[in-house]
Amino acid sequence: KTREKTREKTREKILAAIRSNPRVTTRELSRILALTPRGIEWNLKKLKAEGILKRLGPDKGGHWKIGK
Q1: What's the pLDDT band for 68 if we cut at 50, 70, 90?
Q2: Least C-beta-crowded within 10 Å: which of 10, 23, 32, 46?
Q3: Euclidean distance between CA atoms 45 and 53, whole angstroms
Q4: How far apart are the C-alpha atoms of 39 and 41, rounded to whole Å?
Q5: H/E element holding 54?
Q6: How far apart, in Å, are the Cα atoms of 64 and each of 5, 26, 41, 45?
Q7: What does each C-alpha distance from 24 to 1, 2, 3, 20 come to in angstroms?
């Protein structure tokens, strides 16, 4: 149960960071949230799979779009 709450908070923090800067990079998210880049990528992958998050444009120079 605690792990789920932590994941939920992490996802909220990621979405909040993206809302404030849609061009934020995985590396920047990692630094902002004090998570490993791999942890960030895992969360982003889940958010994309659920249709909550989309990546528009290329990895470099692209930006995030929050759906739902």
Answers
A1: low
A2: 23
A3: 9
A4: 5
A5: strand 53-56
A6: 24, 11, 13, 12
A7: 30, 28, 26, 9
Question: Where would I find the H helices in the chain?
Answer: 2-20, 26-33, 37-49
Phi-psi region of 56 (alpha: psi -120 to 50; beta: other; left: phi over 0): beta
Backbone angles phi, psi at 22, to 5 degrees: -60, -15
Spatial contact of 47 and 29, defined as CB atoms under 8 Å apart: no
Q: What is the pLDDT of residues 9-52, one digit of tens each?
A: 999 999 999 999 999 999 999 999 999 999 999 999 999 999 99
Q: Which amino acid is at 12?
A: E
